[in-house]
Amino acid sequence: MATLTAPRRMISAKTPRDKAPAFLDDVRLELALAGERLWENVMPDVLGGVSAEWGINGTGPGARIADIGSLKTELNNSEANSAGRLGFYSPENEGGRPGFRKGAGMRLVLCYQGKEYIKGRGWISAIAPAAGKYGPRRTSVTAEDAMARLAEYDRMAQLPLQKGKRPEEVLHLVLDQVQPKVDRRRLDRSAPGEELNFVFDQATGSYPTALSEISRVMRSTRGGYFYVRGDGTLRFETRHTRFKPAPFVGQVVVTARELQANDSNEDRVDRVRVTTHPEKVAGTRETIFALNNPIRLRSGEEQTFTAPYSDPSNGRLSGADDVITTEELEPGEHYTFGSGHGDESNNLAAQLEIELQNGATVSLVRVRNTGTSAGSLNTLRLEGKPIRRYEPVVKEESAAQPRGNRSFAADLDYVSDAYKGAAMARAYRNRYQDPPAQVRVSFVANRDHESMRAALLGDVGGKVYVEEKVSGVGRAYFINRCSLELFGNLFLAVTWVLEPAYGRYLIWGRGRWGRQAWGW
Fold first, then answer.
1. What's the CA gap between 208 and 5, in Å, rounded?
2. Were 320 and a residue from 104, 316, 384, 412 both cysteine, which residue would form a disulfide, CB within 3.0 to 4.6 Å?
3. Could you check whether the bond before residue 16 is cis, i.e. omega within 30 degrees of 0?
4. Which of 118, 111, 40, 45 shows the shortest CA–CA distance to 75?
């Protein structure tokens, strides 16, 4: 492995001017009260400050998907606010600010040397005005980022089965469904061989969410990352991306008080167990759903229900391919609708309107009685090619010198190939059997120009060089999670959760060109 050499002044040259305190030009906390094309600055009404956090809260082998990020503040709800109106930030108040409600957009914009940086963006999820005429007269506001929308969207069962798709293709399919829309400007392209065998065929639970399906996809990518950046955009980063040379976004020299370095055996992984799921599509159509209880429909009545698929060979819930369509349904063969209830009468079949919306694991069935008399849907049978699931295959790898029984289990839900599981087990073992110290860095950005630039440029997925002389820390890291505290529109404190930059990197930083040093 190549030796890491500290880049010399990745941001700027060492001059006395750089060591002078640095301050933001402007700070704006903006609300989108009439759609996200128009943002209104409410910073004059902010009390105390603003806090924000986003990204992946961890650095271990299971830290691959971001937690829900948040943006929090308190607004002046007294007569001393910018509107001079008591209760201006109380949504239930008749004199409240128009458009100030849950679901409105909120973002923090920091301006420095003529550039703007969005460091926290989301949608308001909680508004808590303090009650009482002589109370604190302030309103606590919390906004959550796009990960919250993914956790709330629970209509993923209607997505059709996908076969042989790359992870980023599947992620686009998932994100296309989420309403309101989320921003995903950059989803990295996977390397050849990363295709997933079957996707969405395990979304068999009650109301699977977009986030639960993305979690399955990320586990199956064998080491990718999915997260939100400070500007609110979603990103998928493959496991190969972090092994490629990447430019540094900043260099931070910190003191012992600003760095937490934990080099412990608790971070080791002694054994890795990776599970793959062999599956195969049945050769011919079989009955994957049969109606158990008749459905009574009055004249003109419409009902919608879900029809979960199962494998007729074992009765287990399953995904299915080539499911029968609405146009293929034949009365008498696939369904019966008659005046009798609970029998097989089919005398009213002509007045039944039936429509199927097929997903990977369920069909959404809409039935409507178009006649003048009541009738019963007595039978309904759907056909398709069920996904045959076989016994899971578990591959285990142990560290060269295990010091305990600290194990990590990875379930590759959408991978059928056991050889890929074995390769992933070896990769996890090699990477985490003796990991570098886990590092968390906190610093005040205002201390100099370089620290301010690093704080503003640093974001989840970015690579930074961190140096602290007492602990001996001096290497490259990737930022997994960002937190910031803004005090009084003036002081900015930043915390990064850092993952050691594994892989081979070529660092150029010894030579100078003019007064700058360069690094890759």
1. 47
2. 384
3. no
4. 45
